[in-house]
Amino acid sequence: MFRNGFVLKHQAALKQIGRKHYKYLSTQERIPLQHFNSRIKQQQSKMSKRVPQQYDYFLVLDFEATCEKSKQINPQDVVEKADPFPTVFKEFDKWIKEEVGLDNTFLFVTCGDWDLKTMLPNQCDLENLQLPSYCKEWLNIKKSYAIVKGDFIKGMMPMIRGLSLIHTGHLHRGLDDCLNIVKILRALADHGCKFLPTMSIQ
Fold first, then answer.
1. Distance separating the N- and C-terminal Cα atoms of the chain
2. Is 127 in the active site?
3. Around Cβ 181, how many Cβ atoms within 10 Å?
4. Nearest-CA neighbor of 172 among 85, 45, 63, 23?
5. Quick one: pLDDT at residue 127?
6. Alpha-carbon 22 to chain mean position
7. Per-residue confidence of the chain (202 residues) as pLDDT tens digits?
8. Are 148 and 191 spatial neighbours (Cβ–Cβ below 8 Å)?
9. Which residue is catalytic, options 10, 21, 35, 172?
10. How many CA atoms lie within 13 Å of 184's alpha carbon, on the beta-carbon side?
11. How many CB atoms lie within 10 A of CB 125?
């Protein structure tokens, strides 16, 4: 989850780090305090471009397909050992209600529309499960990138390069993709992007 309160907490941490780091350096190692102040100001200037967001949480989500019709694919061990979808989805719904809280405002963030427009509704239909209303609206991070950069791209890696970020882990591995989407989300926030839903379904 990308917490909206990150900005104020991070600014306070920067100030505290600057004071502590300077305090405990030996006389020979000390760097003029104005250098710390300059670095802190640069970080604060970067974050000052951020605009207030209307959500308490951004929930980054990424699904990966492990099978295709008429084609045999060996799934990862973690998929083979996973609980059935209805069990996992019930636990997910419990987590949303108890940990995130329906009284808080939150928005799912995806890299594309397939995850919540196609994959999840189809899987729920297959299992005769009702799709929760909170899964019917989301932000496609590629559209936010297009607003900031003026260029709509098709994949994650062009966004990583366009924002001068370092890719983490393996592409198309669910958790790694989520971590990289968080990086993109934070970088776009630093550019003053206001995050709003880009698609919803009935």
1. 25
2. no
3. 22
4. 63
5. 94
6. 33
7. 544 433 333 333 333 333 333 333 334 444 455 554 555 555 555 556 889 999 999 999 988 766 555 555 554 545 667 788 999 999 999 999 999 999 999 999 999 999 999 999 999 999 999 999 999 999 999 999 999 999 888 889 999 999 999 998 878 777 888 999 999 999 999 999 999 999 999 8
8. yes
9. 172
10. 31
11. 11
> Is 98 a catalytic site residue?
no
Strand order in the sheet with 106-110: 2-3, 57-60, 106-110, 137-140, 199-200
Determine the number of helices (DSSP H) and then strands (DSSP E) in the chain. 9, 5
Q: Which residues of 85-108 are buried (b: 16+ CB within 10 A; e: fewer)?
A: eeeebeeeeeebeeebeeeeebbb
Q: Which two tokens stand for residue 1?
A: 């989850």
- From the candidates 10, 64, 99, 191, give the one annotated as an active-site residue: 64
Supply 99's token pair.
Answer: 């940990």
Picking from 153, 157, 62, the residue whose alpha carbon sits closest to that of residue 115 is 62
pLDDT value for 152: 86
Contact in structure between 132 and 106 (CB atoms under 8 Å): no
